Every structure is written in structure tokens, then in C-alpha cells.
Fold this sequence. Notes:
6-stranded mixed β-sheet
Amino acid sequence: MAFRFVHSSDLHLGRRFASIPEAPDGNIRGRLMEARHASIQRLAQVAVESGAEHILLAGDTFDTSTPSASVVQQSLAAMAENANVQWWILPGNHDNLKDAEPLWDKIGREAPSNVHALITPSPIELSSGVRLLPCPVAFRMSGSDPTEGLASVATDDGGLRIGLAHAGVVDFNNRGANISPDRDRTAGLDYLALGDWHGRLQITERTHYSGSPEQDRFKHGRRGCCLVISLDSPGAPPFVEDVEIGEFLWTEDELPLLPDTDVVAALEDILPQAGHRDILMRVKATGWASLRAQSELDAAAAQCGPNFAHFELSKEHLKTSYNEADIDEIDKGGALRLAAGRLKEDAESESLSSEDRSISAGALARLYSYVKEAEE
Ligand SMILES: [Mn+2]
């Protein structure tokens, strides 16, 4: 019978999401933290539904080396709820053995019987003929490949060998301590479960990053998932199933504009159909738009933004196309018109630096919107 387990990583329990601005009456940071905690229950549910008894967490289960007592205790209590599921927790770089020593001591003392901290690199028999080979991160910036010793870890009986480690393979973070991309082969592993990279990523047939079950940045473009791995027999290729369990979608979408684009319709076109409350969306406007179109776009963004968990419109890469009609709308004559004309000249000037040009362009766009607002 196949040996089946769940692979996840980078839960970052207790992360505070300080980079997400809190809405005045909102609680988005609280909801994001809560979703991280809830991923424990979701992982257990996937394990139960797929008939897996073991969940391997490939590092960074906790966001810091000193999580609060309530983050730790509530996490352990959530793991204890499904007594038939065994949790195997690997120290990662955020919660490495050295910096997080009190954390691992606490887990050692207080963990329920189905939660196991992998604080030594000794092989563990998960099931008859199935060995887990953990590579705990000893300290941050260790400078060496944490899986280096795996080839020499003998498991004499010719059973399954499952590696568990936390580091980059390609040089994600320039840490100079990356896992050799052929480690699965050189260490005779049936599967190598990795953490560190927060998006889902396959390295080889046998080497995978599950990614974080809840995303925390805009670059991955899909909800977080976990992996259900089935190993039929030693040497046979693993069967890997992605199970999407993330509550929040983080998405960055480009909004390409031309001077004649209907910006409101173009924005509506790229908005997701439903579920806005659980979506963090960043819209990156590019191309060209008139002052009028930019002001309409701002108004449309202000209108739809509150539907979302978080919404931001970036116009950093949007250039302004000027026409006399827009400048006329500011004023047909007088001081305002003079100021507008001067800003337009500077915004288009070849002799000014691009920074000065964009300051003038921004000021002109703001002047235009103030005038439009005052008219309303
Ligand atoms: Mn991480």
C-alpha cells in the first residue's frame, strides 16, 4: 500500500502583516493572522480526507524565534485536535534552533503527543519501512547546504527515504547556503520536502516546495496550497497532488491603458468575478492616460476598493498624455491656467530629470483632480 503524507511549510504563525495598511474601520491584519492559524485545521482536514497520518512542516512554522505564548499554545492546541494526525515540525530560518531555543524547549515540554519537534538530524521511522530524514536549521545564515549530510545517513532496510529541509535551491535570497538541486538523486531520496519559498514550486520529480498555505505577497498569483504525497514503493516516482487551502488570494494585475481606453471598463474587466472580501489586489496601471482618464480611474478605484480585503492602485508606471481640453478644464485663463501650463511644460520637458518631470506630472494630475472635486 502507498505511504501517504501531507507536505506543507512556512505557516509563519503569528505574522503581523505590518506592510498591509489597516483600514480605519477594518481588521485586515487580524483576519490575515487568523487565516494563518486556521491553516492548521485545514491541513489536518486534508490529511484526514486523503487518508494521510502524517503532516510534515518544512520550517518557518512560527514567524519569529520568540512567538508569544498564546500563538504557540493555541497552535499546539489546534494540532492536538486531530489525535490521529502526527505533526512533524522542522526548525526553519525564522524559527531556527539557536535563536528559538526557548521556543523548542517549550514545545518539547508542552507539545501534545501527536506533535513532534525535529530538533536533531536523526532519522525517524514514520511507519514500517518509511524513514524521515530531517535537516533542522541550526542557526540563521548557516552558510552551508542543510541537506549535505543526507547521503551518508544510512537506512539499511531499503525502505522509503523522505528528506525534510528548509533552504533555497536556486539562489532565492543570496544566502549562499542553497540545497543542491540533485540532492534527491545523490542522497537516494524518494521525496525531498522543502520549505523556504512561499510559492508552490517543483524542482525535480521528487523535490518540491509546497509553498505557504496562506500567501503573504503579491507575486505568486494563486491561493496557497499543500501537497498530498503518495509513495508506492522505494525508487518509484512520487504521486504529488496540490490541494488549494488558502483563504486569501493575493493578486497583482496589470492594467494596460492607451489614451483612448475607457479606463473604468478596463478596470472592471480585470477585477475578479466574486469573493472580493477575501482578495488582496494590486492593480498596476501602465501605458498612457489623460488627466481626465486618470481622475476617472482614481474614482473607480475608490469606489471598488472597499469591496476587497485590500486594494491598491499603482500609477507609478502610468504616463500622462496631455491634451488642451484637459488643461482647459482646469481653467480657461488666469493663475490656475498659468500654473497648469507651467506644470505641463515641465512634465514634458526634455531638459529636466525624469524625477522632476514626474513631480510636475503628479502635481498637474492632483491639480486636475482638485478642480474636478471642487466642481462636484
Ligand atoms: Mn519562510
